[in-house]
Amino acid sequence: DGEELYGGVFRDAPVVAGLKFFNSNALGISFSYPGDHLLFVYEKLLPDEYSISIQPKEAMLDAIRGARAGFLGEGPPSMGISFIPVDQSVSVETWIRTDSRSNFNPTQLTMEQQKNGLTPIIVADVPGLAYHSEGLYSDDYLVFRYRQWIVVVSAASGDATPNQNLKPLIESLKLDNKE
To answer: Who has greater pLDDT, 131 or 109?
Structure first.
């Protein structure tokens, strides 16, 4: 716990009933994630921007061993939570449709999906939008506004199926709405 790897700080937690628990007082967020995953926190990538990355343990350990041996490459499919500072006047939908960090690409969608590409959702009692994107991985996204950030919760799957590991994270996600 606390070791810096891949530019992020490794955070470990005990496994209880198959899940680990993460809490950040600084970000005002807590959640559970699969016990067979590793969690890294990337702080202040840009001013006031943060990211949390959660990868399958064995695949990430293989990537770390490879990097240490001089073989750099793509990390495993992962889950992530990014906190991106965005002016309060920018709506979640506008941000998704105009900021490349959203990875929203309606040209990848069928005509029906383009009409309904953004699905309203509630995450931790906060309204947001969900969508799917295809690229290197099959990705699911949940985006909402929290404090000064647009928060992007994402899950990548290497096999084009919905990422079931995201479910415990979303169901347990709690936000401290205090500024």
So the answer is: 131
Burial environment of residue 100 by CB neighbours within 10 A (0 to 12, 13 to 18, 19 or more): exposed
Q: What is the dihedral of CA 168, 171, 177, 178, to 10 degrees?
A: -50
Tell whether the model's pLDDT for residue 137 goes beyond 70: yes
Whether the CB-CB separation of 147 and 100 falls below 8 Å is answered with: no
Percentage of the chain modeled with pLDDT above 70: 82
* CA trace torsion 81, 86, 91, 92 (10° rounding): -10
pTM for this predicted structure: 0.85
pLDDT at residue 21 above 90?
yes
Please state, in angstroms and rounded to a whole number, the distance separating the CA atoms of residues 55 and 151: 19
Instruction: Map 41-67 to HEC letters.
Output: EEECCCCCCEEEEEEEHHHHHHHHHHH
